[in-house]
Amino acid sequence: MNGPPGGRPHSSHWGAFHAAHDADGLRVRPDPADPEPSPLLDNLPGFTRARVTRPHVRRGWLTGGPGPDTARGTDDFVPVDWAEVVPLLAGELDRVRTVHGNRAIFGGSYGWGSAGRFHHAQSQVHRFLNALGGYTRSVNTYSLGASRPLLRHVVGSDAPIAEPTTYPVLAEHTGLFVCFGGMPAKNAQVNAGGVSRHGAAGYLRAARARGARFVLVSPLRDDLADDLDAEWLAPEPGTDTALMLALAHVLLTEDRHDEGFLARHVTGFDAFRGYVLGHTDHVPKTPDWAAAICGIPAARIASLAREMAATRTMISLSWSLQRAHRGEQPLWAGVALAALLGQIGLPGGGFGHGYGATAGTGAGVLPYRLPTLPQGINPVPDFIPVARIADLLLNPGGRCDYDGQRLTYPDIRLVYWSGGNPFHHHQDLARLRRAFTRPDTVVVHEPYWTATARHADIVLPATTTLEREDIGGAKEDPVLIAMHRIAEPQGQARDDYAIFAALAAELGVAEEFTRGRTARQWLAHLYESWRAGLAPEHAPAEDFAAFWPAGRVPLRGRRERHTLYAAFRADPDAHPLPTPSGRIELFSRTIDSFGYDDCPGHPAWLPQDPPDPAFPLHLIANNPATRLHSQLDHGPHSAAAKIEGREPLRMHPADVAAFGLRPGEVIRVRSAVGSCLAAVVPSDGLRRGVVQLATGAWFDPSAPQAATCVHGNPNALTADVGTSRLAQGCTGQLARVTVERLTAPPPPVRAHGPA
Ligand SMILES: Nc1nc2c(c(=O)[nH]1)N[C@H]1C(S)=C(S)[C@@H](COP(=O)(O)OP(=O)(O)OC[C@H]3O[C@@H](n4cnc5c(=O)[nH]c(N)nc54)[C@H](O)[C@@H]3O)O[C@H]1N2
Ligand SMILES: Nc1nc2c(c(=O)[nH]1)N[C@H]1C(S)=C(S)[C@@H](COP(=O)(O)OP(=O)(O)OC[C@H]3O[C@@H](n4cnc5c(=O)[nH]c(N)nc54)[C@H](O)[C@@H]3O)O[C@H]1N2
Ligand SMILES: [Mo]
């Protein structure tokens, strides 16, 4: 028996656990050291369902060969053997790189895949494609598409994301949390790479017990835990920038801003002040002005600004704020507001970006890297901002503005996806379907018959982590976990590594890809070379032979008490920020020089599309409480929240009545882009006029006459446009919709069934 009784050690993005698998199914026991294990663990027993159990090739591709095909996504699949599919795919990869060049291969393959340092699907696919001569890649993420490019200009790096002030410091020092977009407990269940101790909620409770106050600024009340007794201010979605500018207006006109901090630590204050006071555009950003936009009373805006100036205040800016049209602005305005308060660099003050977004944000990070599979070198210079995938496929040779550059889209002939689900993560899925008809060949490695697998030509069955061995760890977590095999591979599923190794052998690059190592030898190699490179005070005493049966080793040196920008505050000349000015840039000459009207040189409230009476409701398409993205949507915990198999749409009871709907009824939600079905759940935890439909229900276009998606995937409704020309980030968080009753019984959901 390996590991403690009750199963073997393993890990996931939502928690560490022990598990055993036998004829009765999967039994999962959360890590005993975890103070608040995530109920997402309850989805794991779903891992045997909806599986791809052998390689499949789309019939039209098998008979007609590679080429654009509108049947992609509706055609049927032919099961084939590994011995047949490996040379077939190797031949196609070779054809594309020889005839069209490596830039014709899109290998960005964005997605979270699974926890585990070696079988990390992105590292595997990138390493493989680099061994073949490279690929067109993607930059940035759907999580933080606007943030990273913007923060590089404003504070010079992504330190607010990577190393925010840690929770123990907040729990001790913060007097007032003003949380734009909340700090949702549902999201802190998850951490990229894993989390063995869920601590965020406990630290916030400790702050509350000490007397800290919480103000939640969000259209949804459950974006902050009930036990924090928060005041709930529910703005119109997408209007936080106006609210922040009005808070700044109060600080400036009442002389509550910190002149000393602004003089020493900030550049561009004059430009920002002139804009806020209305000197440049004759529109003073007063509380009355903002109240008309965001719906929060002017008097409360004014009093909140005074409270913020009088207290040690943490301005918490959620990641969701920037996943929207012009999403750069609320983040930049939030930084500007914090700069005016002058508490940046003080314990518990300033701003944070992403508290509650993941378990790791604020937990403190290790000062060294974890074992990582090297990806090799990609000699192809072409890239896209990640959310421009449909544009790329639809417009070969087309142009795209991005962060001062003008990119040209390569002519993509082959798309390779492993560890991601674009038919989960991308917007306007009907348009993505059209985009996926354009390449010659689409290859997908998947454990499950996701919509992405169904839109491929070649589908290769991948193992889940439960069926293989790996090393689990994250830079915010205190242990490295030996992820033991829990179950045998389903059907003919193979590890991504084994699939790529077979293709590499066929293509003559086996040595480059595998270095002659088995998967187990790679684990030992990655562990030992990592351990050898660590400082003695950090290096684990255990060698691999001791680590593996022990199931875990401690990771030492995590910076648990850290204050963002403390050194910069103390001496901005000795510790300048990596911006052109060395200061926080409230006006950026660089951004200004790009001449983008959708992202000017300072934070601004940019004109919005006028409300369309045909789509009177704001849709919030946020990250789901009951699963990670689309993963294990067929698992018991996710399934339990559905109604008649449809995703729940939360709606204010007054809106339910106004639209003449019944609780639990399956209805159609429609936007200018498409429609989906969903089940009505009344809730007074939303602002009126706002509806909420989480992401992650598997896209099911099986009955196009009823709706673009009959299951409830909100990306059937969201628009495929970038945040701005600066960052081109994902804008999937918000959409304008309407709801309507069905005139016929809803068609069945087939998303989790066989292909
Ligand atoms: N409308 C809207 N859309 C959004 C968002 C939003 O707020 N609103 N949020 C966005 C955000 S922040 C993100 S990060 C994205 C998430 O988008 P994704 O990361 O693409 O979503 P996942 O469901 O995690 O997809 C991972 C896929 O990898 C597969 N997989 C798991 N392990 C392995 C493996 O070992 N090998 C292989 N080959 N496959 C594996 C899983 O089965 C799953 O299909 O979605 C974005 N989309
Ligand atoms: N359980 C679970 N946890 C997750 C994930 C998951 O899929 N499931 N995904 C993980 C990933 S990849 C990421 S990137 C993070 C995402 O972290 P976030 O992007 O912060 O998470 P979301 O849930 O999309 O949005 C948080 C909240 O923002 C609020 N909001 C939306 N629009 C506005 C607005 O205009 N103004 C204001 N003030 N508030 C608004 C919504 O009510 C929403 O619930 O979550 C991570 N954690
Ligand atoms: Mo994300």
What is the fold's blueprint, element by element?
Blueprint (H helix, E strand, L loop, with lengths): L7 E5 L2 E8 L2 E6 L25 E3 H6 L12 E3 L2 H19 L4 E2 L14 H11 L5 E3 L7 H8 L4 H4 L4 H7 L2 E5 L19 H11 L2 E5 L13 E3 L6 H14 L5 H7 E2 L1 H9 L9 H8 L3 H13 L2 E5 L10 H14 L8 E4 L29 E3 L3 H6 L4 E4 L2 E4 L5 E5 L3 H4 L3 H8 L4 E6 L4 H4 L3 E4 L8 E3 L6 E5 L12 H11 L3 H5 L4 H15 L10 H7 L1 E3 L11 H5 L13 E2 L3 H6 L22 E4 L15 H5 L7 E4 L1 H6 L7 E5 L4 E8 L7 E3 L41 E8 L14
Parallel strand pairs: 6-17, 7-14, 8-9, 8-12, 9-10, 11-23, 12-13, 17-18, 18-19, 24-28, 25-27
Antiparallel strand pairs: 1-2, 2-3, 4-5, 4-19, 15-16, 20-21, 21-22, 24-29, 25-28, 26-27, 26-29
Helix pairs in contact: 2-18, 3-18, 6-7, 8-11, 8-12, 8-13, 11-12
The structure holds ligand MGD (2 copies) and molybdenum atom (MO).
